[in-house]
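Chapter summary example.
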Amino acid sequence: MTKYEVEEKTVEYLKTVFDPEIPVNVWDLGMIYKIDVTPHIAPSDSPKGEGNRPDGNTSPLGEDGKGLEGFDIDIDMTFTAPNCPAADFILEDIQQKIEGIPDVKTVNVNVVFEPEWNKDMMSEEAKLDLGFM
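The structure predicted for these 133 residues follows.
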């Protein structure tokens, strides 16, 4: 998969994660602030100064894309309330689903509270579903 495809899959999978108290997914609720997809490079078992690629290339990605070992995903997200009772459930659901994307090696979900979540962060669809429009 390409980086772009992994980013698209990440959003697709996030749209399947719901707060059990609100019938809207975390993406449309605006709880996801950032998604970073970066190449995952396996640590080299080679002696110092040698690359981990059979061709001896020490760059993580060659022009042919070889050397790439998948992707790492970092997600910054928040909750609709700092004391969200479903926080552990939501975090576990996100972790498990994103780890299921082909070529994803690691997933790191960071909970942040800046900026503070508010209903203006929701998608138009979420606002309609919840009766805010």
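To summarize the output: The CA atoms of residues 19 and 89 lie 8 Å apart.
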